[in-house]
Each structure stands twice: as C-alpha cells, then as structure tokens.
Write a sequence for this structure.
C-alpha cells in the first residue's frame, strides 16, 4: 500500500508540473471578450492626442489600461474585419492591396502604422478622397476597424489575427502575414494570391 | 486460490514469430487505422468532386510524369522488400543488412519524386477545395513514406550494431517490410484517384 | 403510458397560448398536425413497451425461485426471448412504415403558390417577399405573414453560419445552410401568431433569435402586402420629424434602410415598417416606444454580442428616434 | 522454427514462496516518483486512468450545475452568453472525450489482461504513452477554459461557426487539438486491447469462452479503430482551414459545410456505441455474478454486440435529418436507425431471462443494473422516436434530444459504470465500498436523474431548443426549468456521496478477499489488489465460467521464465499456447514521447511549422523508446 501511495503522489506531482507548464503557455492567450464598451470609456477613447501634422500620436491612458484590445484581441479584430466589409472599405482599398485608395500591404503607411493614425484616418477622413466615418460608425467600431486595418499590413502576423473568410480567396488571410508573403514575392509574382509552402 | 499445474510450457519457443507475434498484430491494427484514414481521404475527394461543377476545380489535370514514375518505383521496390522479408525469416543477417540499405535508398528516392508531384498538381492548397484535398492526400501519404524510411534507417543501424542478430530484430524487419507493402498498396488507389479520375 | 399522460397534462395546461404558440404539441399547421399524430402514436406505443418491460423486470426480480427442470426452463426462455425479439422487429418495422407515410403526407414545398425567402443572419431573420402583380417586392425582418389555408413555400438560406428555421406549431424544422438552399412547406390552418426560434446553435445570441409567423385571412394578408410594399409613411409631428433627422444624421442610417428616405444601409434589418411589427430585435421585446428606446440606448445589455452598436445619443435624440421608429407603421 | 538457447530461471524450479518473490522483483515498478512516471504496469496505469476520468466527470458535473443555475429562471444573468457557450461546449467535449470514452477504455486497460489471464497488456509502453497524452489533452482543454479561451462552438463544432471566419481566436483550435490528443490515446488503447484479446488469452480460452465484458471491449476497440480516423481527418481539415487557409468547408471555393457533419457523425454515432458497448459488457458481468448463473444466450449476446458494432456505421445521417438531404436517403437511415433497436432489445431480453432464471442478490452493483434497465429502455425508445424523420424534425436540437441522450449515456453507460466501480472496487483497491452508502448513492442518483432529465422531454416538445443560455419570461418553460435545476441538486448530491464513499473506502474500507462476490471470471482468481505480475502462473481455462467450474484449485500452466518479464502467447481462435514472449520493462521514454507530442500539437495551433520542427523531438523520443537496452527482455 505504501508503494501505491507513492504512485498517486507521483501522479499528482506530474499533474501539478504539467498544469504549471500548460498555464504558463496559455496564460497569455486569454481571450476574454468585452461585448459592451462602457460609454465613458468610449468617449475617453475618442479623446486621443494626434501630432499637429496628423501623423502619429498617443492613445489615451485608458487604452493601455484595457490592454490595447483593438490591436491584440481576436474578437475585436474579427469584428473589425466584418466592419471592413460592411462599411464598404473594399470599394477603394480592395482586399487590402488598394485600388482607388492606397494599399495596406505594400509596407508604406502614408500616415504611419500607429493605431491612432488609422483611427484618425477613419474617423476624420484624409485628403484625396478618404471620407470621414465619424457619423456613420461608433467610436468602438472605428477602433475595431482600425485595429483590423493595421493587422492586414502587419509584416509579422499577430497571434490574434483573423483567418480566411468563407468567400472567394484573393490573398492569404491576415493570420498568414499577407504583407510579408506578397512582399517576398515582389510586386508581380507569378501567383500573387499564393503564399509559400507551410 | 490453490494452483494445480495442468500444462507445461517449458518447451515453447521464447519468442513468437510471424503471425504469432503480438507486434505483427499491432502493425496490422495500425495499418487498419491508417488504411481507414486513407480511404476517408479518397471519400472526401470523391465527395467534393460530386459537388463541383467541373473537375479538377479551376485548373488542369495533374501532370503524369512524377506521379507515374513514383508509382513505378514503389511497385519495383516491392521486389527487394519481399526479399528482405524472406531473408529476415531465414535470419540471414548479411543479406538483411544489404536489403535494408537498398530499401532505405528506395524509400528516399520516392520522397524526392514526391517533391515534384506537388507542383505537378498545378494548384496550391489555399486556392480551392480541390487544391486542399490533393495536397492533404499527397501530404498524408508522404508522411507514411517518411516514417517508414526513418524506421528502415533506424533498423538498418540496429542490424549493423551488436543488437542486430536476434530473432526479435528479424521479426521487426519483417513487420517493417509488411508496413512498406501497405504504404505501396495504399498509394495505388490514391494514384488512380489523383491522376486518373480528373481525366475521366 | 406515464409519459403520454404527463405530456397530455402539460399540453392541457400550457397550450392555451401566451404570446404565440411555440409547441409541437399545439399544432395549427398541416405538417405539424401530421407529425403530432405520429408523435402521439409512437409515444403511446413506446410507453406500453416500456411498461411491459418493467412488468417483466419486476416479475424477474421478485419471482419466487422454483426448482424446475433446467433444460425445460432453458427451452422455455429461448422461446420467449425469440418471440420478444421478433415482436421488437415487427414493432420497429411498423413504426418505420408509419414514419415513412407521415413524411409523404407532409407534402412538397415546391408546389406552393406563394414563395417567401428567409435569409438567416447572426442573430435575426431577413425575409424577402417577391414582387407579384401590382405590388413590388420588399424585405422585412423577424416577422412572416401568411394567408390561412394556403401552402407557402419558404426558401431557406443563410448569410453566415448554420441556423435552423423552426415554427413548431406549423411544421418541423429545417436548417439554413450557407452555400445551399433548403425548402420548407408552411400551411397555417387557422389564424394566429406562431412563434419560432433558431434551433441550430449559431453563436452568442442563439437564444434571442425568434421569428413570428402571423397567419391571417387572405384579405388581411393582401392588405398587409400592400402596406409593406409601400415606402415609409410620411412623418407627422415635431418629435417624429426630429427623430427622422437624427436617424439620418447618426450612424443608424449606415446599417438600416428606410425606404423613401436617404437611409439605405444593408447590414441591419430593413426598418421601413418597423412600427408595424409585433416585436423588435428578433422577438426580444414587444414593439413599444419605451422598448424601442431601451433597445437603441443599450443593445449590448439586452442582447450581448449582437451586431447593433451602442450609438451615443442625447436623451432628446433617443426619444425622438424612438417616436420615429414607432411611427413607421 | 529456431529455438534459441535460453537458460533463464523457470517457475518450475521454484517453490510458491520463492516464485512470488522472484516475480515481484522482476515485475515491480521502481519506488518513488521516477517509478511512478516510468511504470508500464497496466493496473497502475488503468487505475490512474480511471481516477483521472472521474476527476473530469466531477469537473463536467460542476459545469452542468452552472448551466442549471443559469437556466433556473428566464433571462437570468448569472452567466453571460460568451461564458455559457464555453460551458456547454466544455461539458459535452469533456464528458465525451475526457470522461466517457477514456473511462471505459481505462476499465478495459485494468480488467482485460486480468480477465484473459495474462500478466500485462500488449504494448505496455504504448499504454503509458496513451495515458500521458490523454492527460495532456485534458489539461490543454481545461487550462484554456480557465483563461477564458475555452471552445465555444458546441461539442460537435459545426462549421462555419467553428471555421476560420466565425470561430474567432484560438478557441476552436483548442477543441480540435484536444480531439487529436484524446483520439491518439483512444486508438492506442484500442490496438492494445485487440492484440491482448487476440494473442494473450490464457491457454484454453477459445473464442467461445471469452468473458462477455472482454467481447464487448473487443468490439468497442474495432469501432474505435474504424471510427476515430474520421474525426482525426475532420479535425485536421478544420485546423488546416483555420491556420493555412485550405477550403474544405468553404462553399465559395468548392468546399462544403455538410462535409463536416458527415465526417463528424460518421465518427460521432459509433462514438455512442463506443461508450455503450463496454457498459453492456459490465452489465452482463454484474448480472451473471449477482444471479449466480451464466448470462442467458452467450452466443446471441456476442452476435448482438457485433451486429450493433456493424450497424453503428450505418446511422450517422440521422443526426442530419433537418440539414436538407434527399428524403429518400433519409428514409433509409430511419430504417437502419430503428433496426439497431433489435440487437439492443435482444440484449435486454437476455438479461431479463437471466434474472428470471436466477435468484438475484440485491447488492449495490446489481441495483445499478436495475436502474440501468429502467432508464436505458426509455432512452432506447426515445431513440426509436428520433430515428423517425418527421418526429425528428420537431425534436431535433431541442431539450427532447438532450433528455434522450442523457437517458442513453447516463442511463446506458454511467449507471453500469457506477455499478462496475462498486463491483470491481475490491479488485482495484483491495477494499470494499460501503453497502449502506452505496444504496443511498444509487437512490439519490436514480431519483435525481429521472427528476432532472424526464421533464426535459416535455420542454423539448414545448419548443425549447438546446444550447440557449436563456429564454424569455413569456415562454411557458420557467416552472419546469426551475424544477429541473432543483432536481439537479439531488443528482449532484448522489454523485458527491459516491465520491465520498470511494475516497473513504479506498482509505479505510473493509479489506476485500480475492473473490468477495463469488464471481466466475479470472480477475477474481488472484489477490485483491493483484500482484504486479497478476498471476503467479497463467491460469488454464476449461470453461466459460472458470472459477465456478473449478471450485477447489485453479488449473495453471508452468514453465515461464521468472528472471525476465515473460508472458504466454496463444492462438487467436482456440487459445492454444504458441510461444513464450517477453513483455517490455518500465521506461520513462513514453513520458518523453508524450511531452514531445504535446509540444508539437500545442505549437501547431499557432504555426504550421510546428509539425516540421516538433517532429524532431518526437522522433528522438520514439527512437529512445524502441532502442534495445541490452536487458533480458530484448533476448529471444
């Protein structure tokens, strides 16, 4: 019976160690969803400071206190991806490779890659045709969309980046780093819609 | 409970050979699992084909050369493979060593040919469902070639070491040869499916 | 039998309807009536089978052991078990045949004269009525009107994930599958409001995805079609006019259409006649000015995770927009 | 056939006392933590497996209480939709993949080698590996749930909700990869059981003398071997769709969402029988012991098991009756689904006949069998109901179905399992469980179960869909839901009492003799709990009920070596001795291999390259596992 006990002790020890490792690996993966943004937080988010030239700036403190949800949280990014389709962004920006509007995938951000710049572009519009969405989207939606737009052009895919849609495919999805794939293939790859083998 | 000895086992061999051996049955069971997997992949292929307006979807039928060459090579490899199995039964260490080296080579060359099969499909996995299933079928079979090659290499090392010359090791060689037969046998329907069904 | 009795009791106590029937045991449509007969028949038969097995079990457990001849007993048991298996097979075959005939009696939706397209989305029902004769086609949401006593073919499509369209009092359910189109036959035998809700798990607000089928006399139905196919009625009253202006100026119009105004968004339900519907937000609450205001003010508290954002509005704007919504009969 | 020289120590040369000492030193695990991690004793691993599975049962039970809390009132706000969806997905996935299948296989891991009279399971290291990989899968799922990344797509994870577009974040990947873990472990055990039953039965145990529990596990293992590849392929396709953008389930690019349902249910329906058939074997065993007579119709019972196993693969479409498939095809599946009631009925009738002919002894295990018959017959009959297409269109995805499958799975599998625990507890631990508490446990669970689940049939017919986190006050469901939630407390109390009894009895229960119930099968021929080598000498089997046939002395075979782990290989059909064969010793490598596999599988949620780089440690650990260490077991 002594030996039996040592077996179960051993099993418990092993379980504890494994649990520790597993929690460590998954702890940073927490995917809590905030479905309702408090109105005071929303209006605070709206009050970010932008540099005078409209390029770059600082998000409000509350944004960091929330843990930068619009750049790192899978749920917000996927909501942003929905909004990209629903608000007709693809009419000018296509699948991210541009059209009438600039590309998000060519590594060149006219107003910098910071999220506040993108939020400002969406909210207030920009010269040469970018309309303001101030009256058509809520603050939360604008931030969600901005986070997604930033994700499209990321050179290193974010862990939380969205996967492909159940639609016709035109380029690798955001979780595969389309900007990097298309950049590696050069401006006129043989199959610009394809990535390298996994 | 008291025991009453009614049977004497002393004269039994100390190792079960061939179909008597548990590892032979274990290999068979794993082949059944993987065979089911292969069969299901073919079912998925045919299912997707039945839904598609035309097949292959959005591309040309695959080029025949690499796949056919690989098929021929796999079929040819059955001859030395069966010989290795026979030599293992005869426990002929020298011939088994030679045979394993030959089989290792005959395992590596198909891997190289397989490298040409993927581009011969004229489609990538992320273009459409046809691309997805052909890449998965090829990939599934490739992992089987790969694992068997590794097993052959490890066995070859063993047979050249001091652990080689035992009936148990020869039994392992026999099971490995059986597994290679399985790898070849499963490829034939997949080959027909991947290369000839799109041409029907 | 126990099951049948309990069920009958529950039908008696609950079928007398609250806000619209939603029960397979309170059928008012032809397919649901056929199925109810099948349900009652099979349940009754199964209850009898269960009771019989229980009697045998009890007998076996509390039987006085008899010292009879083992061989005779064995032979007798063999006969009984064989007979029981044969009886099982016969009963099973009977139920299979009954099931098959019920399937046939439900009928084919394609023969119906009226076709309605239902397109499910997370988490509401978009409904399309095709143009016919004098009336143009129109779309509405979460509410389907049908004429009593006529076959209605419902075409079922999905915009995102799999949903399932289920009006228990009218018919069995049918899934809405992306990439496929399914069909269902509805035929209400008497006027009434029949509630249904999504029956295939579809995400966060699967629980709040109800749909109302309102069966009415053919004349009422024709009137309803005529009014729905018209543009939104002109605004009357100061608060309604202000509400309309606020609606168009705020993000509301980016997602909702109100025919006859500049609002032409397509991601949310068509609100042209929202005031005429019995409920809002897919059966969440009854349509009143107050519920409208509560919903617009804080949709994420009432239905967490749905796609309607919380639009910041002053209390005046909120009142005006609610008044405007209510006026859209 | 070559006879190599082997001059090891044989059991013929030793007295009983010396024999036991020699065998103990050959077969024991090392002491301490290292020994616990490296043991390959099927009894240690089996017990560990059973205990772990019951921990998951308890966790899953807590989840169900949380659901009942939320559903006790309309529009309750105890738990939000996001968490609730995770909870019901976790409950289903946990109960199916981490409790029901593993616990049945765990019972087999412990019992089958004892029941066929061998010394260890076939491929003991694979057995150890399978346990570790199972624990890793369970930890992955539960850790993810704790950090709010639990899967939220339902236990059958229908695409597109679980697919790349709507299955947001890593939640669905966690589910899919947990499937891989548990299926690998289940497949491994299935192979071990098949080979153990085929090749390691005691001499004389011909096919028609195999105990019914062993038969049921053999059929179950074949079901696992043929069904689980489908879910492996399905979950792999899902991960590929999500991670590297394949299009298996994307209708816009030639894929199909119903393909998932076909693949899932081709596995998912046999899964029900994978859980149920072992329970059938347990019932047969318990019925025989407590009526003091062999189960009526041995051949019919075996045929029913096999028939159920074959039919199980022809029913999957009845889960898809409302998906819009052609009506004619659906009618075929109605017929096949109903047909499976025939073998199920046959088994019920055979048990009834056995009880009728015998003189039942009302001990706790037998009480659970009575409860099983009462409840399972209801579950079987509601199964006949949902097999009918029109009937199913009204009750599919409602609480009627929830009630149905709980009647089948709890009534049909958990009741026999609890009876089996009471029955085999003395063998597992050497202690008896309390008969008094056992009656309370049975009473509470039986009453609590029926009060909880019977009303759900009615709720379903009244139109309450399953998987809703709340319902509106105007629906007529509130009263019954409150009643169900309160009844669930009774049910939970029963399970709590069971755990109390099990833990208390394991520590301080009455000491059990070798065969406390006077049972007939071979596991009762050895000590409680058995020595590491199970039997000092392999028992020779001359009848279907060996311990009833030989009242005084156990016929055994002699001549095996005792200085190395050696067991007897017999022929598949007649059980005639063919060879002595070594059985591998303890090894830490299965644990390393499991860790390497875990690393690969978890990493592959994030990057496809994990499969490439992860295969290196996996290959290394496998070579370490199989490389000869020059011990006696390597000889032949």
């Amino acid at each position: 019976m002594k030996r039996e006990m040592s077996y179960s002790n051993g099993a418990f020890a092993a379980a504890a160690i494994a649990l520790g490792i597993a929690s460590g690996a998954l702890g940073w993966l927490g995917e809590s969803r905030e479905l309702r943004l408090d109105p005071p937080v929303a209006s605070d988010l709206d009050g970010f400071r932008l540099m005078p030239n409209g390029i770059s700036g600082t998000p409000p403190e509350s944004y960091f206190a929330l843990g930068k949800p619009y750049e790192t949280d899978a749920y917000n990014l996927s909501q942003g991806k929905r909004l990209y389709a629903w608000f007709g962004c693809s009419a000018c920006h296509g699948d991210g490779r541009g059209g009438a509007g600039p590309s998000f995938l060519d590594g060149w951000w006219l107003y910098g890659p910071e999220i506040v710049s993108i939020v400002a572009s969406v909210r207030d519009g920009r010269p040469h045709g970018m309309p303001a969405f101030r009256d058509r989207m809520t603050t939360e939606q604008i931030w969600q969309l901005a986070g997604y737009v930033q994700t499209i052009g990321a050179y290193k895919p974010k862990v939380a980046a969205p996967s492909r849609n159940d639609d016709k495919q035109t380029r690798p999805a955001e979780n595969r780093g389309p900007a990097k794939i298309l950049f590696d293939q050069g401006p006129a790859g043989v199959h610009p819609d394809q990535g390298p083998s996994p | 409970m008291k025991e009453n000895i009614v049977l004497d086992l002393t004269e039994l061999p100390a190792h079960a050979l061939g179909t008597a051996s548990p590892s032979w049955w274990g290999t068979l069971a794993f082949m059944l699992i993987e065979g089911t997997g292969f069969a299901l992949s073919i079912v998925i292929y045919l299912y997707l084909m039945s839904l598609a307006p035309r097949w292959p979807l959005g591309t040309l039928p695959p080029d025949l050369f690499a796949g056919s060459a690989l098929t021929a090579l796999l079929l040819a490899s059955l001859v030395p493979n069966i010989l290795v199995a026979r030599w293992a039964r005869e426990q002929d260490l020298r011939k088994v060593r030679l045979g394993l080296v030959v089989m290792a080579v005959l395992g590596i060359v198909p891997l190289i040919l397989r490298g040409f099969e993927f581009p011969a499909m004229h489609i990538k996995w992320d273009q459409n469902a046809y691309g997805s299933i052909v890449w998965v079928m090829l990939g599934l079979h490739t992992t089987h070639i790969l694992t068997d090659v590794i097993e052959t290499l490890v066995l070859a090392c063993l047979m050249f070491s001091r652990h080689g010359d035992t009936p148990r090791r020869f039994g392992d060689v026999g099971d490995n040869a059986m597994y290679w037969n399985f790898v070849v046998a499963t490829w034939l329907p997949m080959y027909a499916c991947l290369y000839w069904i799109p041409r029907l | 039998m126990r099951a049948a009795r309990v069920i009958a009791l529950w039908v008696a106590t609950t079928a007398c309807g609250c806000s619209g029937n939603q029960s397979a045991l309170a059928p008012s449509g032809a397919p649901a009536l056929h199925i109810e007969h099948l349900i009652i028949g099979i349940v009754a038969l199964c209850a009898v089978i269960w009771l019989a097995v229980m009697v045998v079990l009890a007998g076996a457990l509390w039987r006085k052991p008899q010292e009879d001849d083992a061989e005779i007993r064995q032979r007798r048991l063999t006969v009984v078990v064989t007979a029981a298996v044969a009886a099982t097979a016969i009963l099973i075959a009977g139920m299979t045949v009954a099931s098959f005939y019920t399937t046939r009696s439900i009928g084919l939706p394609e023969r119906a004269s009226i076709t309605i397209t239902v397109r499910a989305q997370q988490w509401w029902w978009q409904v399309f009525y095709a143009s016919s004769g004098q009336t143009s086609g129109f779309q509405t949401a979460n509410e389907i009107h049908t004429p009593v006593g006529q076959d209605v073919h419902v075409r079922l499509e999905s915009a995102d994930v799999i949903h399932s369209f289920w009006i228990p009092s009218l018919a069995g359910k049918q899934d809405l599958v992306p990439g496929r189109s399914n069909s269902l036959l509805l035929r209400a035998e008497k006027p009434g409001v029949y509630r249904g809700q999504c029956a295939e798990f579809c995400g966060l607000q699967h629980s709040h995805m109800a749909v109302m089928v309102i069966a009415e006399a053919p004349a009422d139905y024709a009137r309803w079609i005529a009014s729905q196919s018209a543009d939104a009625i002109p605004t009357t009253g100061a608060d309604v006019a202000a509400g309309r202006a606020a609606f168009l100026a705020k993000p509301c119009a980016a997602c909702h259409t109100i025919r006859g105004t500049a609002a032409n968004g397509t991601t949310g339900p068509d609100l042209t006649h929202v005031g005429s519907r019995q409920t809002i937000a897919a059966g969440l609450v009854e349509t009143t000015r107050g519920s409208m205001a509560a919903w617009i003010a804080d949709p994420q508290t009432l239905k967490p995770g749905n796609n309607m954002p919380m639009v910041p509005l002053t209390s005046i704007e909120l009142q005006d927009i609610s008044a405007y919504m209510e006026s859209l009969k | 056939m070559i006879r190599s020289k082997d001059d090891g120590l044989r059991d013929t040369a030793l007295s009983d006392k010396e024999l036991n000492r020699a065998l103990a030193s050959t077969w024991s695990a090392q002491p301490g933590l290292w020994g616990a991690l490296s043991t390959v004793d099927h009894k240690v691993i089996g017990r560990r497996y059973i205990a772990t599975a019951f921990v998951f049962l308890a966790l899953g039970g807590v989840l169900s209480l949380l659901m009942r809390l939320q559903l006790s009132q309309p529009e309750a706000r105890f738990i939000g939709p996001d968490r609730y969806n995770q909870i019901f997905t976790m409950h289903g996935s946990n109960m199916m993949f981490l409790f029901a299948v593993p616990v049945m296989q765990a019972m087999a891991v412990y019992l089958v080698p004892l029941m066929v009279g061998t010394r260890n399971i076939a491929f003991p290291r694979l057995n150890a590996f399978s346990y570790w990989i199972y624990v890793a899968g369970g930890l992955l799922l539960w850790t993810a749930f704790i950090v709010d990344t639990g899967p939220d797509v339902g236990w059958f994870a229908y695409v597109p909700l679980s697919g790349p577009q709507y299955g947001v974040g890593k939640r669905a990947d966690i589910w899919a990869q947990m499937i891989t873990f548990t299926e690998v472990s289940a497949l491994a055990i299935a192979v071990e059981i098949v080979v153990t039953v085929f090749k390691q039965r005691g001499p004389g145990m011909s096919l028609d003398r195999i105990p019914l529990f062993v038969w049921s596990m053999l059929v179950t293992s074949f079901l696992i071997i043929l069904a689980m590849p489908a879910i492996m392929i399905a979950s792999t396709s899902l991960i590929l769709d999500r991670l590297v953008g394949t299009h298996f389930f994307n209708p816009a690019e030639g894929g199909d969402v119903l393909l998932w349902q076909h693949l899932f249910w081709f596995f998912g329906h046999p899964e029900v029988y994978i859980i149920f058939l072992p329970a059938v074997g347990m019932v047969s065993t318990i019925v025989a012991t407590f009526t003091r007579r062999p189960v009526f119709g041995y051949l019919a019972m075996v045929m029913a098991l096999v028939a159920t196993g074959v039919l199980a693969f022809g029913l999957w479409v009845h889960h898809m009756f409302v998906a819009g498939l052609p009506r004619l095809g659906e009618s075929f599946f109605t017929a096949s689904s109903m047909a499976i009631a025939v073998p199920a009925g046959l088994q019920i009738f055979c048990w009834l006949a056995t009880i009728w002919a015998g003189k039942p002894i009302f001990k706790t295990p037998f009480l659970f069998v009575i409860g099983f018959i009462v409840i399972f017959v209801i579950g079987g009959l509601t199964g006949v109901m949902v097999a009918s297409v029109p009937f199913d269109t009204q009750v599919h995805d409602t609480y009627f179905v929830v009630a149905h499958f709980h009647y089948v799975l709890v009534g049909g599998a958990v009741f026999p399992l609890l009876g089996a625990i009471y029955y085999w507890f003395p063998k597992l631990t050497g202690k008896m469980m309390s008969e008094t508490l056992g009656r309370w446990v049975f009473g509470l669970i039986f009453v609590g179960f029926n009060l909880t689940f019977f009303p759900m049939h009615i709720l379903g017919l009244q139109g309450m869909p399953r998987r809703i986190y709340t319902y509106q006050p105007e629906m007529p469901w509130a009263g019954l839901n409150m009643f169900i939630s309160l009844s669930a407390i009774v049910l939970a109390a029963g399970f709590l009492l069971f755990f109390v009894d099990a833990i208390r009895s394991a520590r301080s229960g009455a000491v059990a003799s070798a065969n406390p119930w006077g049972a007939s099968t071979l596991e009762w021929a050895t000590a409680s709990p058995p020595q590491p080598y199970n039997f000092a000498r392999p028992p020779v089997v001359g009848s279907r009920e060996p311990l009833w046939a030989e009242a005084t002395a156990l016929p055994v075979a002699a001549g095996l070596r005792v200085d190395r782990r050696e067991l007897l290989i017999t022929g598949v059909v007649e059980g005639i001795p063919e060879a002595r064969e070594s059985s591998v010793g303890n090894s830490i490598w299965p644990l390393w291999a499991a860790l390497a596999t875990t690393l690969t599988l978890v990493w592959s949620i994030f990057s496809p390259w994990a499969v490439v780089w992860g295969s290196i440690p996996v290959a290394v650990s496998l070579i370490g596992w199989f490389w000869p260490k020059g011990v006696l077991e390597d000889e032949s």
About this structure: The helical segments of chain B are 22-51, 65-90, 93-120, 129-160, 167-196.
